[in-house]
């Protein structure tokens, strides 16, 4: 851990390690289907992106001072300190009511994630809490969170999973404290940007959709295109423009990287992923994934503002090989039991990349505290917490039989749902600094 991995800038030949094992390829093919879903849930309609980026809403006016001791000791050292706990290893234990903390309809979550409001009949998925192996994870405490974030701008940056967690946090806080919606993209832009404020504590909470962290084009904005365009050395996103106002940044991305892509650096194609039609070197997606995090961390570590950056590890989907139009996908109603499900090899690799980049950035940063919110394992164990067909309102209304084809979401978390636990961990990370 902590070894600084060189970025693999291959220009000729296919380097070892770029080709995934056959099982992984099969699995990725299934994963591509879930990307169709990511798109449907997170992106602007064709032709919509111009308007999305035009009027940048700049309402934030906090100055983000904060008083913690900035350490450059890095992730590894910090996680071995007495005050910390490894929340990443543990199990889900039954705890009736634990996750019934807010009404998703009342706090206006994305309708596709409002499982209770959409009529999901069984709600047992709300009766679990995460029990770390060697310590306790306290239940979410809105007052403690707002105290830890007092006077600061907390921003989630990344794909629709980042937004899912931001909306969870908003609801957890809004259930206990007065709040205001400051700005939100029109629904037709799928909430690429939302900002709330909690005036009692001077806390601002924002979410920025940036599926690759770095600048992208193609499929994310025009779904008829067969691949993503990823500009590895450019940020140029809305979040980049606002980064100077951010005091706590949660970065989460990953799912879009599985898609076919054409990668650029300095305006030139440097490789592709799963796009053999283009005569360019296959470079896989893990090296670009690493590079995107590195670019985002460089941005956040270079402007002299004291801030905390939290990298979320990958939270896997649970289509388990079924197509996204299969209404029987992710219909489990309980978490996996111990030993029933292991973290997959691709997820493990993506998780390691996040840890390595966090450690490298922490060692290099003077003003930035870098932490990892390691949710891969706990998310892996929760096939029951996705909307599934309850991404639709009353999907079986009229008493009809379950149709053969119906789009399902086995990717995001119901709100409320397992993603609330990510915010319980985030609270512990932020509390540790004061
Ligand atoms: C979307 O991409 C297709 C090609 O795949 C293109 O024909 C179309 O003009 C694009 N639409 C917009 C709005 O850019
Ligand atoms: C920062 O840490 C040092 C050593 O750990 C300690 O002596 C000092 O009081 C701390 N400062 C603040 C403001 O917490
Ligand atoms: C949630 O809130 C909505 C509107 O705010 C209300 O109609 C609904 O009954 C509430 N649901 C529950 C389970 O309390
Ligand atoms: C801004 O910074 C000043 C000190 O530089 C502090 O007194 C004030 O409370 C801060 N305001 C906010 C909103 O954080
Ligand atoms: C692809 O590149 C190789 C080597 O540069 C070249 O020989 C080949 O003709 C190219 N194929 C196409 C379809 O452009």
Automatic annotation (TrEMBL):
Keyword Glycoprotein: yes
Upper taxonomic lineage: Eukaryota, Viridiplantae, Streptophyta, Embryophyta, Tracheophyta
Sequence similarity: Belongs to the PC-esterase family. TBL subfamily.
Stored InterPro entries: TBL (IPR029962), TBL_C (IPR026057), TBL_N (IPR025846)
Compartments reported by the entry: Golgi apparatus membrane
Main location: Golgi
Record membrane topology: Single-pass type II membrane protein
GO cellular component, one term: Golgi membrane
Keyword Transmembrane: yes
Protein name in UniProt: Uncharacterized protein
The organism of origin for this protein: Oryza glaberrima (African rice)
A molecular-function term among this protein's GO annotations: xylan O-acetyltransferase activity
Residue ranges of domain Trichome birefringence-like C-terminal in the record: 137-428
Keywords linked to the UniProt accession: Disulfide bond, Glycoprotein, Golgi apparatus, Membrane, Signal, Signal-anchor, Transferase, Transmembrane, Transmembrane helix
Transmembrane segments: none
Leader peptide range in chain numbering: 1-43
Residue ranges constituting the Trichome birefringence-like N-terminal domain according to the UniProt record: 84-136
